[in-house]
Amino acid sequence: MNYSKNLLDKFKEILEKYSLLKKEERILLCVSGGVDSVVLFHLFNLIKEEFNLTFLVSHFDHRIRKDSLEDALFVKTLCERFAIPFIYSTVPVKEYARREKISLEVAGRNLRYSLWNRLVEKYALQKIALAHHLDDLIEEIFMRIIKGTGKRGLAGIPLKRENKIIRPLLFFTKTELLKFAMENKLSWREDLTNLDLRYFRNKIRHILIPFIEKHFGVSFKKNLQKTALILSEEEDFLEKLAEESFHRLNKGSENNPRFEVEEFRNLHPAFRRRIYFVTFKKLGLPLSRIGYTHVEKIDALLELKSGTSIDLPGGLIAGKSGRFIFFAGKEILEKGKEEIFVENQGKYEIFGRNLRIFKTRFLEIEEDFREGMIFSAKKLRFPFVLRGRKKGDRIWIAGVGYKKLKKFLQEKGVPFYNRENLILCEYRGEVVGICGLYIHPEYEPKHPAEEVIVIEIEN
Predict the structure, then answer these.
(1) Topology of domain 2-231, per CATH?
(2) Intervals of CATH 3.40.50.620 along the chain
(3) Is the pLDDT of residue 337 over 70?
(4) Which of 314, 240, 251 is nearest to 283 (CA)?
(5) pTM check: above 0.90
(6) How far apart are CA 387 and CA 22, in angstroms?
(7) Considering the domain 250-329 in this protein, what is its CATH number?
(8) Quick one: average pLDDT of 219-237?
(9) 440, 400 in Cβ contact below 8 A?
(10) What pLDDT shows up at residue 334?
(11) Residue 402: which H helix or E strand, with range?
(12) CB pairs under 8 A, 24+ apart, for 340-347?
């Protein structure tokens, strides 16, 4: 058992040296039932009392193999044996991959991480422990090199991420973990899909790496690990700088970030790309779905005309509006298609906002009147239309004549991504009002005592 003791000591040393966890933390262990995750389970169980840890086990069933439920039952039995809470989750990964037009591997990864983050929030956990080992790291690096990658990709799988996800087995080879499992007479489940050469990762695992080991020696793994660790630490440092720059340069919100074009032009292109990746994370877009062409197109927006936009995965868009580039959900482009027919006074809803439409005397409008439009009741009459903007809309400007709405909004500095939220009032085929921006001169109230129609936004 000396080998097992040495491995356990090294495991604890890694936890402490790299500050992967603290005593008394609550951990989510992700256990598939394979030898790697079973070893991780037993190592955590061995240090449970010493570190005063509380941990739960999550098993995610991909429903790809017919015997996947047997894996879940195996992990459930393991947890019952050691009185560890067990959480079973399943999602039809194949259907998700087909719908999103992504690979099974990427689909499974996206769904797993989404689930684990929800469990962390639900059960007030501090860490997510994953069983990736050194062989996984090597495979990941080669996969990224072959597909094309930058420095971020060469760092492979990080030892920890956001001080939440930890991979304490990343310093151990598969052979070392197998030796520990056999010495302790552990049982585990074998996933036969790991032998299927139709999967890209398996080609790396069973063809490329054995070839390199045969001709260049097995020590290449440890050497590559050192390089990856250095790159990972540098990536962590640069990502923190990019995160700080994101908050400093963002003129919008985290959900709808926007950046001044000139400020971005003055940044080094490599650093701009890092801020883009921080932005993707803020918007909840998995980085696995972002390719180099997406980043190139975003960067090209800096030199394109205002009003240009590009599609991104996950229902997002990036665009240029005036002196800003912005990121938002595609739904902002759909809102302008809404339209309601107003036949009388009452409550209405458009673009998710509640409206109260009523008649009163101009002088009786309360001082705390919120956002909305006020028209002379002599000019605007029921029925009329409230809608979003349409291509070709024009408005009448006194002393100027008709002006294109698009040009008017540009002059007013209304960002492109806010234009689809505007509420327009149309009467007899003409735009007579834009909430918060414009009332047709002939429709403005002229006297305090006259009757007016009020369109008030309540939220």
Answers:
(1) Rossmann fold (3.40.50)
(2) 2-231
(3) no
(4) 314
(5) no
(6) 56
(7) 3.30.465.60
(8) 86
(9) no
(10) 54
(11) strand 401-404
(12) 340/385, 340/386, 340/387, 341/383, 341/385, 342/382, 342/383, 342/384, 342/385, 342/386, 343/382, 343/383, 344/382, 344/383
- For β-strands 401-404 and 394-397, DSSP reports them as antiparallel
Query: For the segment 273-298, what is each residue's pLDDT rounded down to a tens digit?
Result: 999 999 998 888 877 678 788 899 99
The structure tokens 């024009």 sit at 394
Residue 403 tokens read as: 């002006």
In the chain, residues under CATH classification 3.30.465.60 are 250-329
As a whole number, mean pLDDT of residues 360-372 equals 83
For range 368-383, the mean pLDDT: 89
Closest listed residue to residue 338, CA positions, set 256, 437, 422, 432: 422
First-to-last C-alpha distance (Å) of the chain = 68
Cβ atoms of residues 326 and 257 within 8 Å: yes
Q: What is the pLDDT of residue 332?
A: 57
Averaged pLDDT of the chain: 89
Residue 336 has a pLDDT of 53
Q: Which residues pair with 339 in a beta bridge?
A: 387
Amino acid sitting at position 315:
G
